[in-house]
UniProtKB/TrEMBL annotation:
Keyword field contains Iron: yes
Keyword entries, A-Z: 3Fe-4S, 4Fe-4S, Electron transport, Iron, Iron-sulfur, Metal-binding, Repeat, Transport
Protein's name in the database: Ferredoxin
Co-factor: note: Binds 1 [3Fe-4S] cluster.
Single GO term (MF): electron transfer activity
Ion transport recorded as keyword: no
Xref: InterPro entries: 4Fe4S_Fe-S-bd (IPR017896), 4Fe4S_Fe_S_CS (IPR017900), 7Fe_ferredoxin (IPR000813), FdxA_Actino (IPR054830), RnfB_subfamily (IPR050294)
């Protein structure tokens, strides 16, 4: 089980979670942040600092936000807009910086 970021992050992206993450596994897109599913060590440091309570264990995310579990994984597994290759396992968000793009679902998402 891993943590995922849900709908409340879209267009808010406070980034307190990014600063708190000890393993640098929270990557920033254009409209929201994403937690890398295999880099996350489930420490939970990100969850309490999120001001909009957008971070959940994947098995505990509200049912109406289940798509965000898929989108957190898709962000790394499929090529993002403007990229040919998927991000895969880049080994830390600081190495690649802010990406400024999101999955197609998040691009089109309207809260």
């Amino acid at each position: 089980m891993t943590f995922v970021i849900g709908a409340a992050c879209v267009d808010v992206m406070d980034k307190a979670c990014v600063e708190e993450c000890p393993v640098d596994c929270i990557y920033t897109g254009g409209r929201m942040a994403y937690i890398h599913p295999t880099e996350c060590v489930d420490c939970g440091a990100c969850e309490p600092v999120c001001p909009v309570e957008a971070i959940h264990f994947e098995d505990e995310i509200p049912e109406e936000q289940r798509e965000f579990v898929i989108e957190n994984a898709r962000f790394f597994a499929e090529p993002l807009p403007g990229r040919v290759e998927p991000l895969g396992d880049p080994g830390g968000a600081a190495r690649i910086g802010e990406l400024g793009v999101d999955t197609k679902f998040v691009e089109a998402y309207r809260p």
